[in-house]
Design brief:
Length: 60
């Protein structure tokens, strides 16, 4: 998985758990995996592979 693309997606569309972390100020669920965000990232990679490649090139 591309960390840069995931970060871009999360910045633009934060999940509920990300908003909770930001509001509280710390991670109340450190082992939580946001399945909706994971699926969204996979769909974005499938739909826009050139954008994911661009984000990867900018990150590294």
């Amino acid at each position: 998985m591309s960390d840069a693309a995931d970060a871009l997606i999360e910045r633009r569309n934060p999940s509920d758990i990300d908003r909770l972390r930001e509001t509280i100020g710390f991670d109340v669920l450190p082992a939580y995996r946001d399945e909706q965000a994971v699926v969204g990232a996979q769909q974005a990679r499938a739909r826009w592979p050139h954008l994911v490649a661009f984000a990867d090139s900018r990150a590294g």
